[in-house]
Amino acid sequence: MQRRDVLRLSALAGAAGVLTLDPMTFTQADAAGPADDPEQTKTLSGHLPTGAPDFVYVPVEVPRGVREIAVSYTYDKPTVPAGTQGNACDIGIFDERGTELGGRGFRGWSGGARTEFAISAEEATPGYLAGPVKAGTWHVVLGPYTVAPQGLDYTVTVTLRYGAPGTPRTPVYPPQRAKGRGRAWYRGDSHLHTVHSDGKRTPAELVAAARAAGLDFITTTEHNTTSAHAAFEGLWGDDLLILTGEEITTRNGHVVALGTDPGIFIDWRYRARDNRFGQFARKVRQAGGLVIPAHPHGTCVGCNWKFGFNEADAVEVWNADFTPDDEVTISEWDNTLVAASRGQGRWLPAVGHSDAHREPQVVGLPQTVVLADDLSRTALQEGIRAGRSWIAESSKIDLTFEAVGGRGQHAGIGERLKVGGAEVVTLRLKVSGVGPGCSVRFITDQGQLYGTAVPDSGTLTAEWRTTASYAAYVRAEVRHAPADGGASGVPGPMAAMTNPIWLGEH
C-alpha cells in the first residue's frame, strides 16, 4: 500500500468509508487452464492504521477458465493496553457483478469466524454462495472491525484453480408453511446462528436443539449472509417450520430480518451517519420480512442500536440469558408504550430470542410465543406485528393473559379492550411451569401497580381490577427472585413477559 493510501486512511478516521487497493492480476488462461500450472496463487500484504475505513477492497482480476477461487488471510494481534481494543478483521467477497451497495455481486461473508474459504460452481465454504466463477474483477473485502494503536498488518492469499466449471446445484429452500394446529399459540426462536456464520452448530444440530426445546418454528439469521437458507434441506417437517432471514450486522447495531424470501441478501455496509438504513429496511419488507432491532443495548462493539426505531416492526427486548442490558431495553421499550398510549406515535411489540451460537447456549432461551392463524410465515409475521405474543424462558412455562370488561367485553395480549374510562376492568393472568421463588407483576403506564408471589407449585391465577382512566395499558411479567433478596429494589431475572393489553376507547 502506498503512503498516500495511509494518509487517506487517516483522513477517513471512523468513517463508514471504503479503500480500494491495487488489483491482483492473474495470467489469462483458457478453459482447460495452463498445462503446467493447474492453479495460480498470489499474496498481498499491507498495513492499516487506526481509523481505517470500514471496508478495504482487494480487486482480483479473474481470467476465463477458473473452476474455483480460494482465499485465505491472516492479521497480527499485538498486545494492547488494558481497556484498548485490539485487532479484529472480518473478510468476505463480491464477484464480477461489483461491490455496489445493495447490488448483486455478493458471494459471501464469514466475518472473523474463518481464515479461509473457497467458492466453485458446485459448492462453497459455509457463509459463501456456490456458483460459477466467472471472468471479471472480483473483490476480496477486509473489514477492520477494530484496530490496535499499532495498526493492523494483514496478508491476503488468493488461489485460482483452473478446470471444467462444474454444474451448479439448484438450491432447495424450506417451505413457508407447516402443518400446525390451526389458530393457536406457536413457540419460536428467530435469532440463531450455525457454522454458516460464527456459530458452532450445524443446521442439523440446530434443528435437533429446536425440537428438544419444544419449538414450532425457527428463523435462520446468519451474520450478513444467506448461505444457510439452502442448508436445511430435509430438516423441516410437519412439527417444525424453518423461516429464512439474516442478522444484518452493521457497525452501529444489528437487526434481525425475520422471514425474508429465501436467497434474498440485505446489505450491511453502512453506519447511522450514512442515512441508508431506511432504504435497506424497506428492502427487508419488500423481501417479505420483518425489521427487528436486536439486543439494542448489547455490550459488544457495534452492538448498540443507533438507527432509531421508526423503521422497526418489533424490537428484541430479551436476548439470551436475562442480563442488565435486557433490563435497560425493557425499560426503554416500556417508555415508548407510555408515549403510544397518549397518541404520540405507534407502539412496537416486544420479542425475545436466544441468539444461540454454540453449546452451552440454549436454543429457545428465550422464545417468543405467537398467536397465529396457522403455522406459516405470513400468519406468524401478522401475529408478531400485531403484538399478539409473549416471551418465555422455556417451553415449560405456559400463560394466558386477558382483560374483561363489565359487559363481557374481552381482549387478549396485543389487543385493545374498548371501555369507558370509569368502567371496571378485570385483568386475569394464569401461569404455570415456573420455578420456586417467582412473582408476578402487572406493569402500567404508571409502573407496577400490582404484584403477588407464585406458589411453590409454579401455578397461579392472578386477578386485578382497574379502569382505563387509571391504566392506559397493562402488561404482565413473571420474575425470578432477586439475587440480593430484593434489598436493592431491582427485580429478579425475567421468566416470562407479555406485550400489553390496551385499555380505553382509543
Characteristic terms for this protein:
elongated, mainly beta, Immunoglobulin-like, 6-stranded mixed sheet, single chain, 5 helices, Jelly Rolls, disordered N terminus, TIM Barrel, 3 domains, 506 residues
Structural notes for this entry:
By secondary structure, the protein is mainly beta. The protein has 3 domains: 19-162, Jelly Rolls (Sandwich), CATH 2.60.120.380; 171-395, Alpha-Beta Barrel (TIM Barrel), CATH 3.20.20; 398-505, Immunoglobulin-like (Sandwich). 11% of the residues lie in helices and 36% in strands. The chain has helices at residues 3-11, 203-212, 277-286, 324-341, 377-386; strands at residues 18-20, 24-25, 39-48, 55-62, 66-75, 88-94, 106-111, 116-120, 136-146, 152-162, 184-192, 217-220, 241-250, 253-258, 290-294, 315-319, 350-353, 367-372, 389-392, 398-405, 410-412, 416-417, 424-432, 439-444, 447-453, 460-467, 473-479, 494-498, 501-503.
Q: Do you know the CATH architecture of the largest domain?
A: Alpha-Beta Barrel
CATH superfamily of the largest domain: Metal-dependent hydrolases
Instruction: Please state the average pLDDT score.
Output: 94
**Largest sheet descriptor:** 13 strands, mixed
Q: Provide the β-strand percentage band.
A: 35-45%
For the termini, the CA-CA separation is 63 Å
Tally of distinct domains: 3
Low-pLDDT parts are: 1-15
CATH overall fold name of the largest domain? TIM Barrel
| Global structural class | mainly beta
Measured as a percent range, the helix fraction is: 10-25%
